[in-house]
Specification:
Layout: E1 6-12, H1 20-33, E2 38-44, H2 56-59, E3 63-64, E4 70-71, H3 74-82, E5 91-93, H4 94-106, H5 117-134, E6 140-145, H6 155-167, E7 172-179, E8 182-183, E9 188-189, H7 192-203, E10 210-215, H8 221-231, E11 238-242, H9 250-256, H10 259-267, H11 278-288, E12 292-300, H12 310-322, E13 325-333, H13 342-346, E14 351-354, H14 363-375, E15 380-383, H15 385-397, E16 404-406, E17 415-420, E18 435-443, H16 448-453, E19 457-464, E20 466-468, H17 473-479, E21 482-486, E22 493-497, E23 504-507, H18 522-539
Parallel strand pairs: 1-6, 1-7, 2-5, 2-6, 7-10, 10-11, 12-13, 12-14, 14-15, 15-23, 16-17
Antiparallel strand pairs: 3-4, 8-9, 17-20, 18-19, 18-21, 21-22, 22-23
Helix pairs in contact: 1-3, 1-9, 4-5, 5-6, 11-12, 12-18, 14-15
The protein binds glutamine.
Glutamine binds near residues 357, 358, 384, 464 and 466.
C-alpha cells in the first residue's frame, strides 16, 4: 500500500443532472465511514470566475465557504454529507484557471514560451487538483468534473485527468457516471448511450475504471455483463445507481452495490474496516418515521427553481430529523404576495421563512409576509435579505417610518434602516466583493439565539453588502426589536429578535450553509421546534 494521496475522478456522460455531486458525496461518506479522510473538489468548466455573479436561475444556489469562496451548490452537498468544511481550493472554474495562467504570463513567468491549452492550462488544472492532496490532510481527494464528456468546455479537464492517470498510475481512478434509459415502447433498458459516452472518453485517452449507471429500473445480470464487455470494465465495477426517495439514501444504495469496496481495491487501499454508518442509519430512520408534520412557507423570488434555495431546504430536512418531524416546505413566490392577498396566501402556515435575495423584485411581498408573521404570531425566520425585510417592516409599521427602506432599493430614502456597509462604498466590481465568509458574532444572554446555540460566541458565513443601520438601534430596541447578535469587532448587527412573539428571529448571516447530517443547524432546529410547539398550542386552543 502506498502512502501517497489517492485521486478519484468523477466524470459524467450522456446528459447533465445525473447527480455526480450526490454520488461523489455518497462515496466519500462510505470511505469516511471506513476511517479514511476524504475531501471532494468540483471543477466547473464555465468561464465565470465563480458562480457569485450568476443568477440562481442559471445555476441554482451560490454556496459560501468559511474562507469566503462563492461556490457551486455541490459543495453544500459535500459539507452536508461529510461534515468537513470546504474552501477556495474545493471549487475551480475555467475562469479561475485562465485568470491565473494569464496573470503568470503577464509576469513573464513562461520565459518567452507560447502559452497554450496543453500544457499550460492543463498544468494549472493538475496543480489545482493536487493542491488538496499536497496538504497531506487527506488520504483521498475526489475530483468531480462538471459538465458532460464531449462538451468543448470540458476537454482540457479530461486531458488533465488523462495525464494524471498516466503520471500517477497506481494512485488514480476514474468513475464515469452514465445514464441507462428505459424505453417504454420497447419495454427495455438501453445501454447504447453508455457505450457511446465511454467511447467518447476513450477517444480522449481515458479508460474509466468504474461505471456508475443511473437507471430507473434494475440492471439485470445480462445488462451488467453487456456493459462490462463493451466498456472494458470488470463486472463488479458496473454499479447500478437507482433513483432514491431522498438523497440521504444514496450512500446506502452505493454500499449495497459495493462501490466503496471496488474503489478501495482498485486504489490498492485496505477494505478491512467496514463503513460505520450507525449515525446515518438513525438519520434515515427518522426521515422515514416522523412523529409529526408541519408546513413552513418559504417566501422567495426564485421559487420556480428550488435549487436556488438548496441549503435551506436541506437544513429543514436536518432540523426535521432532529425534531422527529416532517417539514413540508410550501414554496411561495414573493412577487405574487400583496397586502390584499397576504392573509389568504399565508393562511394555515405553521411557520414562515423569508429567504435571502438581491434587488427589488418581490421585496414588497417579502415585507408583507413579515408583517403577517409578526402580527399573527406565526414563528418567523428571516435570512439575510429576509432579516433586512424584517427590520424594514418593523420600522414602517411599528416605528411609524412609512418610507423606511434599504438603500439597496431606494438609495436616498429618508429612513435608511438598512444601509450599505462602509467598506462597500468604494467598491465597483461585482464579483467576489461582498462581505463574504465566516465572521464572529457575540450573542445576548437568554436570547432565542443563545438558547439555540447553547453558547454566546458563534461564527457564521455571510454574503451581503448592506447591514442594519446602527443609527436606529436605540429606537428599535425601545420599540421591542432587539439586536441579539453583534460582530464583536465592528458592532454590526447580525441577529434581531422580537421577544414578544412565539419565535421571531432574523439573521444577517446564512445559517443554512452550515447545517449537516451530523450537525443540524441550531437555529433551524430551534425554529422547527418553535413551529411544532406553536402548532400544538393552536390546536389545543
Ligand atoms: N441584498 C442584500 C445585501 O446585499 C442581502 C443579500 C442576501 O440575502 N444574501 O445585503
Amino acid at each position: 500500500m502506498s502512502n501517497s494521496t489517492k485521486y478519484i475522478f468523477v466524470t459524467g456522460g450522456v446528459t447533465s443532472s445525473l447527480g455526480k455531486g450526490i454520488i461523489s458525496a455518497s462515496l466519500a461518506t462510505l470511505l469516511q465511514g471506513r476511517g479514511y479522510s476524504v475531501t471532494i473538489q468540483k471543477l466547473d468548466p464555465y468561464i465565470n470566475i465563480d458562480p457569485g455573479t450568476l443568477n440562481p436561475y442559471e445555476h441554482g444556489e451560490c454556496y459560501v465557504t468559511d474562507d469566503g469562496a462563492e461556490t457551486d451548490l455541490d459543495l453544500g452537498h459535500y459539507e452536508r454529507f461529510l461534515n468537513v468544511p470546504t474552501s477556495q481550493a474545493n471549487n475551480v472554474t475555467t475562469g479561475k484557471i485562465y485568470q491565473s495562467v494569464i496573470e503568470k504570463e503577464r509576469k513573464g513567468e513562461f520565459l518567452g514560451k507560447t502559452v497554450q491549452v496543453v500544457p499550460h492550462i492543463t498544468d494549472e488544472i493538475k496543480e489545482r487538483i493536487q493542491i488538496l492532496g499536497k496538504k497531506g490532510t487527506y488520504d483521498i481527494v475526489i475530483t468531480e468534473i462538471g459538465g458532460t464528456v464531449g462538451d468543448i468546455e470540458s476537454l482540457p479537464y479530461v486531458e488533465a485527468v488523462r495525464q494524471m492517470m498516466w503520471e500517477f498510475e497506481n494512485d488514480c481512478i476514474v468513475i464515469h457516471l452514465t445514464l441507462v434509459p428505459y424505453l417504454a415502447a420497447a419495454g427495455e433498458l438501453k445501454t447504447k448511450p453508455t457505450q457511446h459516452s465511454v467511447k467518447a472518453l476513450l477517444e480522449l485517452g481515458v479508460q474509466p475504471d468504474i461505471l456508475c449507471c443511473r437507471t430507473e429500473h434494475e440492471l439485470g445480470l445480462e445488462l451488467r455483463k453487456k456493459i462490462a464487455k463493451f466498456c472494458n470494465v470488470s463486472m463488479n465495477a458496473v454499479i447500478e445507481s437507482r433513483d432514491a426517495n431522498t438523497i440521504y439514501e444514496v450512500p446506502f444504495l452505493m454500499q449495497q452495490e459495493e462501490l466503496d469496496k471496488v474503489v478501495l481495491e482498485k486504489l490498492g487501499l485496505s477494505t478491512k474496516t467496514k463503513p460505520d454508518m450507525t449515525k446515518w442509519t438513525e438519520f434515515l430512520n427518522r426521515i422515514h418515521n416522523p412523529k409529526s408534520t408541519v408546513t413552513i412557507g418559504l417566501i422567495g423570488k426564485y421559487v420556480e427553481l428550488k435549487d436556488s434555495y438548496k441549503s435551506i431546504s436541506e437544513a429543514f430536512i436536518h432540523a426535521g430529523v432532529e425534531n422527529e418531524c416532517m417539514v413540508e416546505v410550501k414554496w411561495l413566490h414573493s412577487e405574487k404576495i400583496t397586502c390584499d392577498n397576504v392573509n389568504k396566501t399565508l393562511d394555515g402556515l405553521d411557520g414562515i421563512l423569508v429567504a435571502p435575495g438581491f434587488g427589488s423584485r418581490g421585496i414588497s411581498g417579502k415585507i408583507e409576509a413579515v408583517r403577517y408573521a409578526r402580527e399573527n404570531k406565526v414563528p418567523f425566520f428571516g435570512i439575510c435579505l429576509g432579516m433586512q425585510c424584517a427590520v424594514i417592516e418593523y420600522a414602517r409599521n411599528v416605528l411609524g417610518y412609512s418610507d423606511a427602506h434599504t438603500t439597496e432599493i431606494v438609495e436616498n430614502c429618508v429612513h435608511p434602516v438598512i444601509s450599505m456597509m462602509e467598506e462597500q462604498k468604494t467598491i465597483s466590481n461585482m464579483g467576489g466583493t461582498m462581505r463574504l465568509g465566516a465572521y464572529k458574532c457575540q450573542l445576548k444572554p437568554s436570547s432565542l439565539a443563545s438558547i439555540a446555540y447553547t453558547t454566546d460566541k458563534i461564527s457564521e458565513r455571510h454574503r451581503h453588502r448592506y447591514e442594519f443601520n446602527n443609527d436606529y438601534l436605540k429606537e428599535f430596541e425601545k420599540a421591542g426589536m432587539i439586536p441579539t447578535g453583534k460582530n464583536p469587532e465592528t458592532g454590526l448587527v447580525e441577529i434581531v429578535e422580537i421577544p414578544d412573539h412565539p419565535w421571531f428571529l432574523g439573521a444577517q448571516f446564512h445559517p443554512e450553509y452550515k447545517s449537516t447530517v451530523a450537525k443540524p443547524h441550531p437555529l433551524f432546529v430551534a425554529f422547527v421546534a418553535a413551529v411544532i410547539k406553536n402548532k400544538k398550542k393552536i390546536r389545543n386552543g
